[in-house]
Amino acid sequence: MLNKTIGLLIALTVSTILTAQSPSGPLPSPRQLAWADKEFYLFTHFGPNTFTDLEWGKGTENEEIFNPTELDCRQWCRIAKAAGAKGIIITAKHHDGFCLWPSKYSNHTVAQSKWRNGKGDVLRELALACKEYGLEVGIYLSPWDRNHPKYGTSEYNEVFINMMKEVVARYGPLFEFWWDGANGEGPNGKKQIYDWHRFQQTMRTIAPNTPIFSDIGPDIRWVGNENGIAGETNWNLLDTAGFSRGEGAPPTDTLNAGNVNGHLWLPAECDVSIRPGWFYHESEDTLVKTPEKLFDLYLKSVGRGANLLLNVPPDRRGLFTSFDSAALMGFRRRREESFRSSLIHQRGTTVTVDGEKNIGNLSDGNGHTFITLGKGRDINVAFAQPTLLNCVLLQEPIQMGQRVKGFRIEIKKEDGTVFETSATTIGHKRIITFPAQSARSIRIVVTDSKSVPLIGDLGVYLIKI
């Protein structure tokens, strides 16, 4: 009987280990994993709207109005690199139909402008500059076209597909392809029935490693607002059956939070502009978001398991302004100062999981290596002396799926009392802030999980909030 009991216990232990090591639920593709690790990159809205002071162009603008006098994509990239961004996504064609490259499929492009005597190519200059500065390039291509004469006919879908093929072939590889779901009238007063199925098939054929963004993916979903804020509960999962891009998208609160039992891995991207508008307006030079505001948005986007896409529009010269650059540099400093070194690495600090101390995988700064939480489902951090802190950072190894549904942080204070706070999802990264506490120890308890919880990284900090 004793042998049977021991055998049963061993079998249960092995089963638990195997379950923990096995992926759970929908999983990210390699392209989605690589995308998630980028965390922060820039958007840049640029085109005729920059010169007309509009947000949505009419498509009737004379091409000669596009004439940046000092365009320098290397300046954009220097600033992006210094800000810690991983790449730049540019509006290659916004709703007005103007192409920032000399497309063979439109007569409303840089080739018809005065800029560079009609020989210029913004996308080429950006792609070369990104390569020089170790950044990646992404393309926003709006299917709505208020200028193209074939818009509103079945022929236009072929035009759009050919444009996609052009930009991928000339300027790839691309780290993201951005589809806007807007669908309005063209110059003939008609709306277009977009052939999204063919668009997606084409992209998968010509750029299989490029993740595609839209309201409902297929690789990245919209977060449901343009404020740069993800839900406090944010699942990388979503059900898209019965929904479509644009007006047929899921409710914004669903896009913001995802679906706990969603069937598709569709992580959220938080798009927001550094200014009130998306295109440059001189009147907004004094309204640029401060480093403090940008850091707050970082905590509410990347710190809630999403990626942050921050728009920085070039001015009429074709340059990022000093106002935007200063804000970006301050934002970089705030992130570096906040997360330079985890308090876990203080001398004398011990980290214990299931009786095992100083787990290397838990504090190596790599969210893809991980530890398994056993029966207690907790992590204990003990400091050698009282330590002031107000921030905990957690990561799940998302290559194994998203598992944690709820967790609690217990801080034993210097006076012996306990401070508690709780949250729901973790995902790629979760940053929790709270009033500063003088702590003797911290206990992190997973209170609810879809399967055996795995933690990829843990950091403890005192940051300026």
What can be said about this structure in brief?
The chain contains ten helices and 19 strands.
Structure write-up:
The chain has 465 residues and is an alpha/beta fold. The chain folds into two domains: 30-339, Glycosidases (TIM Barrel); 343-461, Galactose-binding domain-like (Jelly Rolls, Sandwich), CATH 2.60.120.260. Helix content is 25%, strand content 24%. The protein contains ten helices and 19 strands. The strands form four sheets. An eight-stranded parallel barrel has the order 1-2-3-4-5-6-9-10, surrounded by four helices. Strand 3, helix 6 and strand 4 (177-178) form a beta-alpha-beta unit. The longest helix has 20 residues, at 2-21. It is globular. The relative contact order is 0.12.
